[in-house]
């Protein structure tokens, strides 16, 4: 992990802790958690649901955006908004709507799994941009616009991780 990746990971960890602290999350969900990290967040689906329902704050999205291999244009396409609208979110620091928040968390999850499998962002990015026989000769990034495609991509990453090559 590079210095930049460690720095962003530390900031993501702090932002997750801040979101949990200032939110109205169910105390049962968070009482057993002393120090929740960004990676830990993906292990607790109920917390992810809470984050989605409350709306991802722009500060959290900005960190996720810098951590993932996706460009601003990719993000605009995933969120079904213009890049100009993304800029407005930045200027107003408002929370994303639940449907957009869900997409943000999905792309964060894909990145988390991809980094687990490939170990490096550059290798993961190359995989995303390379046509894949198991995914109908489509580039995995092309499938990330909807939840079914995202599930196919995560499924393929899981198979690669376990050495199951189709």
TrEMBL record:
NCBIfam families: TAS_TIGR02293. GO terms for molecular function: DNA binding. Residues 116-163 form the Antitoxin Xre/MbcA/ParS-like toxin-binding domain. Residues 49-104 form the Antitoxin Xre-like helix-turn-helix domain. This is DUF2384 domain-containing protein. It holds the Pfam family Xre-like-HTH. It comes from the Bacteria. It comes from Mucilaginibacter arboris.
